[in-house]
Amino acid sequence: DAKTTQPNSMESNEEEPVHLPCNHSTISGTDYIHWYRQLPSQGPEYVIHGLTSNVNNRMASLAIAEDRKSSTLILHRATLRDAAVYYCIPMNSGNTPLVFGKGTRLSVIA
Amino acid sequence: NAGVTQTPKFQVLKTGQSMTLQCAQDMNHNSMYWYRQDPGMGLRLIYYSASEGTTDKGEVPNGYNVSRLNKREFSLRLESAAPSQTSVYFCASSAGASGQPQHFGDGTRLSIL
Q1: What is the four-CA torsion angle of B74, B7, B77, B68, rounded to 10 degrees?
Q2: Of B31, B43, B105, which has the smallest distance from its Cβ to A100's Cβ?
Q3: How many contacts (CB atoms, under 8 Å) link A and B?
Q4: What band does B96 get if pLDDT is binned at 50, 70 and 90?
Q5: DSSP labels, chain A
Q6: Which of A14, A60, A80, A91 has its CA 20 to 30 A from that of B69?
């Protein structure tokens, strides 16, 4: 499994953009990059995933480095409800289970 | 809009008791998973079922058994509960194809005294 490195914690002001980095330098060429988040006392929630190109959805944007060794999850305007632990997880093209690291705990300040 | 449903939501057991955690999904997903999450930690995989009729061990299978009852349901059994199994248990499902996302239930909070 590809190893990931994420900051333990980050802080953002409400309504400002947040860039959550992830290093996955050992990722294989066929691994997707998945992001999940876990709000307090809830199960993980899928946020976004991509392979090579940048991706956008209603929740966030995913910027993938050209060499695919790192990616950045972008929340365009942080809200208090975005306070959660964010997990970056490489996932191969089969149905291999996710391997969770410790993630980044995002705090949002009003 | 149920998604993945886990029962019960909370349970307290005594050491040595047995219990089955239930999980059902209504998204016609092929793959289902059981994870546990200890306080302050990330999720760890216990068992998974890539498709109906198959099950495989994950990172921490000892002390657990699973049954993929049908395509919808995947149960986790603790035969003789131990305090070390106190945790929050999450069930998840996915379509199983090319990097498709997993969908998680709300968890079962299990305490073993």
Answers
A1: -10
A2: B43
A3: 59
A4: confident
A5: ----B--SEEEEETTS-EEEEEE-TT--TT-EEEEEEE-TTS--EEEEEESSS-EE-SS-EEEE-TTSSEEEEEESS--GGG-EEEEEEEE-SS-PPP-----EEEEEE-
A6: A91
Give which of A70, A105, A75 is closest to A87, Cα–Cα.
A105
**Max Cα-Cα span within chain A:** 41
B57 contact partners, CB below 8 Å, separation of at least 6: B47
> B98 vs chain A: nearest CA distance in angstroms?
4
pLDDT in the model for residue A98 = 82
pLDDT score, position A94: 67
> Could you give the 3-state DSSP secondary structure of residue B29?
coil
Whole-number Å distance between alpha carbons of B44 and A102: 11
Inter-chain CB proximity A95 and B45 less than 8 Å: no
pLDDT confidence of residue A33: 93
- Asked whether A84 and A39 are in contact (CB, 8 A), the reply is yes
Rounded to 10 degrees, what is the CA torsion of B99, A70, A17, A39?
Answer: 50
Q: What angle do CA B9, B40, B61 make, to 5 degrees?
A: 65
pLDDT under 70 in chain A at which residues? 1-2, 93-95
Please give the radius of gyration of chain B, using alpha carbons only, rounded to the nearest integer: 13
* Distance between B104 CA and the closest CA of chain A, angstroms: 6
Pairing of strands A61-64, B64-68: unpaired
User: Nearest to residue B96, comparing CAs of A105, A95, A12, A106?
Assistant: A95
